[in-house]
């Protein structure tokens, strides 16, 4: 079984990397949505109580789905049984998500 630290311990470890002047300005949050389909939510980094970075599984998965269909429609590639083609499409879509700073 893999070791999985509790969030409070992981958060303290993250905060230990910050210098003293940033320690009180930067904060890390995990937000879980109980009614979400996967039980996950998002990770947020705030500076001076303003959200500067967010990683959201729901947003990413919906964008992945939409962009995959846009790509398939544009390229007329609807063969879902072809694993190589599907993997190639996903790699292209993931690159566009990274370029647009949509993370999960």
How do the strands and helices of this protein lay out in sequence?
Layout: H1 7-15, H2 20-23, E1 26-32, E2 41-47, E3 50-56, H3 57-75, H4 83-99
Helix pairs in contact: 3-4
Explain this structure to me?
It is a single chain. The protein has two domains: 8-56, no CATH class; 58-99, no CATH class. A three-stranded antiparallel β-sheet has the order 1-2-3. Helix 3 (57-75) crosses helix 4 (83-99). It is built from four helices and three strands. The chain has helices at residues 7-15, 20-23, 57-75, 83-99, and strands at 26-32, 41-47, 50-56. The protein is elongated, with a radius of gyration of 18 Å. It has 104 residues and is of the alpha+beta class. The model has no long low-confidence stretch (mean pLDDT 81).
Structure described in brief:
Helix content is 47%, strand content 20%. With 104 residues, the protein is an alpha+beta fold.
